[in-house]
Each structure stands twice: as structure tokens, then as C-alpha cells.
Design goal:
Distance between the termini: 30 Å
Strand order of the largest sheet: 1-3-2
Helix content: 55-70%
Shape: globular
Oligomer: single chain
CATH architecture: Orthogonal Bundle
Number of domains: 1
Number of strands: 3
Order of helices and strands: EHHEEHH
Radius of gyration: 15 Å
CATH class: Mainly Alpha
Largest sheet: 3 strands, antiparallel
Structural class: mainly alpha
């Protein structure tokens, strides 16, 4: 079962990034990442926020885009990028399954 909210620490762990990087990306792209706040003021990220952060991370770390480049790509190709990320995630899952099968045999 999927969680409704993720803390900034959980998001940072999932992405293997620092909390400060997640916070920076959330502040830089408020149109795509809209965390809610709890009573203490801590950020609580939805699954969609996590997906958008994964997309931003991919564009920065893998594609090597600047933040301005990421903003342009998101504003022009968001649907295509979402589809690409779903494929990448699926391929990662398949790879993990294959690696597990290789360990067994």
C-alpha cells in the first residue's frame, strides 16, 4: 500500500539526495512540487510531488540540464517526460527482479 504523505527525510532517502537538495528543488519548482505542511510546519510530500522530484532529479543528474533547462523542459514537454519516467521506473523494477533471479540461480 502506498503512503499518502512522505516526509522530506523519506523523500531524500528515496532519491538518495540531501534534504537541502529536496527543499531547494521544491522551492525552485513550486508549480510542480506542492508539499503540504503539518502543524509543526514540516513539509509533507504527495506521491505526485515525489514523481515530479524524480523527474527533476533525472533531468539534472542524468540529462545534465541546468535548473533553467529543467524549467523549460517541464513547461514544454511535461506529459512526454512523465511517460519517459514511467518507462525508466518500470525498467529499473525489471532489472531488480532479474538481479534477484540471478542471485537465486
Amino acid at each position: 500500500m502506498e503512503k499518502l504523505y512522505y516526509t522530506i527525510g523519506e523523500v531524500a532517502d528515496i532519491l538518495s539526495e540531501e534534504n537541502t537538495t529536496v527543499r531547494f528543488w521544491a522551492n525552485t519548482f513550486p508549480k510542480y512540487i506542492r508539499p503540504e505542511r503539518n502543524a509543526k510546519g514540516n513539509r509533507l510530500f504527495h506521491k505526485k510531488d515525489l514523481d515530479n522530484l524524480k523527474l527533476i532529479q533525472h533531468l539534472v543528474r542524468v540529462d545534465g540540464l541546468t535548473l533553467d533547462g529543467v524549467a523549460k523542459r517541464l513547461s514544454t514537454d511535461k506529459d512526454r517526460l512523465d511517460a519517459k519516467m514511467k518507462i525508466v521506473e518500470k525498467l529499473k523494477d525489471i532489472r531488480s527482479m532479474l538481479e534477484e533471479l540471478q542471485k537465486i540461480s
